[in-house]
Amino acid sequence: MKILRIRNKKYCIYIVLLVGSFVLNAKAQGTKQHPYLFFTEKHIQNLQNRIKSDTLMARVWTDMKSNAEKSVESKKGGDIREIALAYRMTGDKKFADRAKEMLLPVLQKEAWDGLDDRTPRWNSALGTAHTLEVVSNVYDAIYDNLSAKDRKYMAGRIVKLGIEPSFGDWIWEPSRIHSLNAMGHNWWSSIVFEAATASLAVMDEIPEAKDWVKKAMNASNEWFYFSGSVLENKPKSFDDNGGFYESINYANFGVSEYLFFRVAYTNAFGAIKMPYDSLLEKTMDWFIQNSYPNKSQLMSVNFGDSSPHVNADRPVKLMIELGFDKPSYRWYLDQIGTKHPFKEDLNINTAMGLVYEPSKKAVAKNPGLPTGAIYSDMGWATMRSSWDKDATMLAVKSGFTWNHAHADAGSFILYHNGENLLIDGGNVGYGAPEYSDYSVTSQAHNVILFNGEAQNPQDQYHAVKTSGHLYHLINSDNFKYLLADATGPTSEYFLRNYRNFLWIGNVILVVDDVKAYDYGKFEWLLHYTDQAKKRGIDLDITKGNASVIVRPLFPETLANGYPHDFPEKMILEERMGVKDHEPNVKVPYYAISPPEKYQQTKFINAIILLDDKNKVNNGSALSSMASAKDGRSNLPVIEKLEGNDYIGVKITQDGKTTEVYFNLKADGRLMHRDSHNEMNGWQTDAYMMALTYPAKAEKPTPDNLTGYFVSNGSYLRNNSKSIFGSLSKVFMYASVENGNANIRLQGQPYINATFNIKKPKQFVLNGKVEQPIYNKAGLEITIK
């Protein structure tokens, strides 16, 4: 590594040059004997051994070999990769000859791909990369059956038709026309790394190809660490915690294209280490954190241009092949299984999938990851009840909008009892008018509109200048919280657009704090799957055996009767959208709005998660005893709370009561005045507070609290007795049960916090056992 220092009067610039064997930690000892890309001697020997004992792999191989033989006999059709694999597995030249026969017409074309509608013309596109992926693998696999003349000819055509157009447009000077700023997402990864893999294949005939490979590997550092562009409104590609903002779908594709190159490089030269390897591992965790395992098939969060059926089978298997093997990866692959419908994977029924099927290992009961995860750079988060199949998972997005990332700041989707019940509007083919008119717009997502608008429709093309954000994930067993800020992307219409999620037992409260520049109509959008039915003040959302109740509470409830007789109640309006991936199919969704025009208001909507205590029958939540008047029983009891400068909700379930208060003095309406408020005998300056206590008690007291929550507050008191105090406002949840104290605390970099808690058996702070400082006033904690 060399570092050059260049000085002038204003600037000191450091240029880092990676030279020689750069940071690959593997001396290029010369290429091995072909094949050395994917169907190597080692991998073929391993497959031959495995099919002796693995009946599934043996059956798949038998079918592949049979298909290859049919192609040889008929000289029609066939999968060229399967035929190449048949040659490596059997050594029978007839398969190599058939593969060559199929390869030559591709290599004899004048060009593989390009975009004539661009100026300057794009000489390579995804078609180039896809063709290179097939051609380079097959060329490498049948190399020893080719004459020297054939090898030279084929290598030259691979360079002419694939490598030169790709590297010429995307890497090489002075012909390069693309930058990471413009196309530095999945296209860059696919085109550059497939050209690099092809360069590996032709190194024996084209010696300079070794330098092309090095240049591509060096460039991978810039791709992984691209940090965005202010002038072009571009975000960093990868969140520090591993997320990829373009969606699960495009992350799977873009990362896999790199990993295929990495595997081929490793097979050719040996194992390497790169600076971003830890980021790659975090990306695999991101795939897992955004997955939903159920009893039928694993689903994935489908924010943006994605699908609920997408998975990361391919990158996870390639990571295992590279030696990054973790129990969580094995658990994830076990959830996917072998019959998943997603086409872009390493399914065992494909030639590459059969060769790179990971060896069998015991599978853990869960991935060993937290049940909540936040990706603050890109604005994604998930929270789940557990890692069990058919559990409950809430996914929230409030981040960037551009290209494959939709105008969906503040949106959420919900999975429960094996189904995706509250859904993202999805997407359709890019050529369909519904893609631009509906799929990418705010109207296709679970957000709040003002006078029918949220984000400007141009955001998806030109990129949103001020992106949304997620903050303060608190993930405990009994209480979960997340704050979504969608104000930036919707600031054309909103002065405030904050969405709070409080998950308390079987109830998820969605608390929206919104303010516009003038009076107008606020609308709360709800997209759902399958069946929805209004029952009194509730909406029952059902699919199969999964069901939730959505109950508006503030500004008002739905009418419990004829809407015409209750003009003050919330208005429920059914609208029509487009079904995910089916532009010709219209599907309904709801807009819930108050009858009055507001400039500032609060929405509180409860999502009640139905379980075995509330059976599902014909789309309705029914008790097995059917003892309640409306056919339900065992539901959480939810009551509205209202007082001077506050609103709230009281939830009673499973022997516990939780009171949640929203402090109207703390919603930004006051400047240079304290937000001190008293609510039900409790004093605080918090934006929100929640108090949990035994249901048999009449009210919460300092002595009977089992948990309490403060959102953006510096103190919590009862009758002048301090329960919690901090000089700066914090986000905090404290659970005090069974003699143990578990506190989640977030806020400023330096916090002096005091808690009035009896000395516990164990004190856990932000997931770690601590030994706090005690004094006469209670428990004192200093956090630096």
Please give a quick description of this structure.
This protein is 26% helix and 30% strand.
Q: Would you write up a description of this structure?
A:
This protein is of the alpha+beta class. The chain has 16 helices and 37 strands. 26% of the residues lie in helices and 30% in strands. Strands 24, 25, 26, 27, 28, 29, 30, 31, 32, 33, 34, 35, 36 and 37 form a 14-stranded mixed beta sheet that branches. It is elongated and about 90 Å long. The chain starts with a strand and ends with a strand.
For this entry, give a set of tags.
784 residues; alpha+beta; eight-stranded antiparallel β-sheet; 16 helices; 37 strands; 26% helix; disordered N terminus
Write the layout of secondary structure elements.
Elements: E1 2-7, E2 12-17, H1 41-50, H2 55-74, H3 80-90, H4 93-107, H5 126-141, H6 148-170, H7 180-183, H8 186-201, H9 209-224, H10 248-269, H11 277-289, E3 291-292, E4 299-300, H12 313-321, H13 327-336, H14 351-355, E5 372-375, E6 380-384, E7 392-397, E8 411-416, E9 419-422, H15 433-439, E10 448-450, H16 459-462, E11 469-475, E12 479-485, E13 494-504, E14 507-520, E15 522-526, E16 531-535, E17 538-543, E18 546-554, E19 571-579, E20 582-593, E21 598-609, E22 615-617, E23 620-622, E24 637-643, E25 646-653, E26 656-663, E27 677-679, E28 682-684, E29 688-694, E30 707-718, E31 721-737, E32 740-746, E33 751-755, E34 762-765, E35 768-769, E36 773-775, E37 778-783
Parallel strand pairs: 32-34
Antiparallel strand pairs: 1-2, 3-4, 5-6, 6-7, 7-8, 8-9, 10-15, 11-12, 12-13, 13-14, 14-21, 15-20, 16-17, 17-18, 18-21, 19-20, 22-23, 24-25, 25-26, 26-29, 27-28, 28-30, 29-30, 30-31, 31-32, 31-33, 33-37, 34-35, 36-37
